[in-house]
Amino acid sequence: MIRVLLVDDHAMLRAGFRTILSTQPDIEVVGEAGTGSEGVELAARLRPDVITMDVQMPDMDGVEATRRIVADPAITASVAIVTTFDRDEYLFQALDAGAGGFLLKNAGPEELIAAVRALAAGDGILAPEVTRRVLARFAATPLPSHLPSPPPTRRRRKVRRERMPCRRSR
């Protein structure tokens, strides 16, 4: 069972998300919060698997709430920012805060359900509308000229030993 916490300052939106998610036999909405600080408190108390988080809320925005949730080693939930605002500042701040996903509220019910399942499985999710911008930002970031090689695998070490000339003591 995937345990979900809904965090949004609009009760009608939380009710809609609850209705959509409750139709699924493998998803259970375990709590709702109307502010970011309530979301942080409920995440610590209820231990959900996935949290849907609005960006703009009273008292603490969703980015700061996400940052606090992700920083708490006792909370293992993945956070999906779900917002009406398709803005780079929210997108990249949310990802920098540790959000596992970013969805727009114009997504359909199937997309919300799929996102919850993907996050619960340990995958990340991005709204199709923002994916190209994330890729463009990544591509614009220069990589180091020399990336360290990964440590050799057991198989590679064995092959190296087999290819080395025998050294016998005399």
Question: If you had to describe this structure to a student in words, what would you say it looks like?
Answer:
It is a single chain. The chain has 170 residues and is α/β, with parallel strands linked by helices. The chain has a single domain, classed as 3-Layer(aba) Sandwich (Rossmann fold), CATH 3.40.50.2300. Helices cover 46% and strands 17% of the residues. The protein contains seven helices and six strands, in the order E-H-E-H-E-H-E-H-E-H-E-H-H. It has a six-stranded parallel beta sheet with strand order 2-1-3-4-5-6, with helices on both faces. Strand 5 (101-104), helix 5 and strand 6 form a beta-alpha-beta unit. It is elongated and about 75 Å long. The mean pLDDT is 89.
